[in-house]
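Exam revision sheet. Question 4 asks you to relate a sequence to its structure. Input first:
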Amino acid sequence: MDDPKYWVGFNRISGIGPMRFKKLLDFFGTMEAAWRAGPGELYQAGLETRSVENILASRPTIALDREMDRLRRLDAHVLTWESPDYPRLLRSIYDAPPVLYVKGSLLPQDDLAIAVVGTRKATVYGKEVTARLVSELARHQITVVSGLARGIDSVAHRAALDAGGRTIAVLGHGIDSIYPAQNVGLARDIVSRGALLTDYPLGMPPEAGNFPPRNRIISGLSLGVVVTEAGAKSGALITADYALEQGREVFAVPGNMLSGASRGTNRLLQQGGAKLVLEVKDILEELNLTMISQQLETRAILPENDTEAVLLQHLSGEPVHIDEISRECGLPIATVSSALAMMELKGMVRQVGGMNYVVARTEAGGR
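Answer key, structure tokens:
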């Protein structure tokens, strides 16, 4: 596979987006060969003068190995179009980002993802609706995608985590910073139960123009987009537009007709651009996810060895601390810890904060 550092290098060059990445890859075969190419070859690849000049001027200023070292120090990694774990749904959109910077983990189960977005100026109603819907989505093992912004996005991420689910935050800046600063703690929690993700290079500040393009990634990662509360000019409506262009389903929660915070969602429903949501079942049924989530839950509760079976006997819907689990099961803490980590990946149990665990379903036959 092509060394990702050359992809990272081109991603730092102004004007080299998905279309020009494809031209370079098609002509040279690898991004390393493209990186070493002279001006004549770059023109032959189909690049226009401005792009060639940008490449020739930028290459000497980009220290590729130093860039990769910076990512490693941040405990982040890079995915490219060629990476086997590049998100399948995102890869299918017409302008999929050639490079993704990731902090945290992307798992195969994240293919079952739904975006939940909305206004930064969320009302009490909007926050409550978002928390309820997201909590239910998480309990159905649906990964929740949002943008880490103030308001609805922050509520969506936190509700997914509190319900023991997974969540992905798509950033409008480099992976080496967090915006808004008030979400530093939330971002840290997201990394432990999902991922921070961006296509912007290191050092890119959170400029206003970055956020509309990043919304295509939020919708591209998802089977559908739910707008829970949005004003007439909310950025969440841009995400809904991208979703429709990408062939994704769009859902909206109706709101108070007298509230400016609901004008965007109500307009989506009025114009037929979104399907009305009153409960999570409306989303799951429309996306044919009801049976899938049930199958995942059923499979998740089946223990594969004696340790898992013992742990399940001592867990229920009530949180139990790992130390208490170890004492009650008569197993070393290291054994319990590693087993719970594996069971969590399988969706058998959930950590609900502070090293407290519950079973994924209370019907699983715990205490």
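Marking note for examiners. The longest helix spans residues 124-139.
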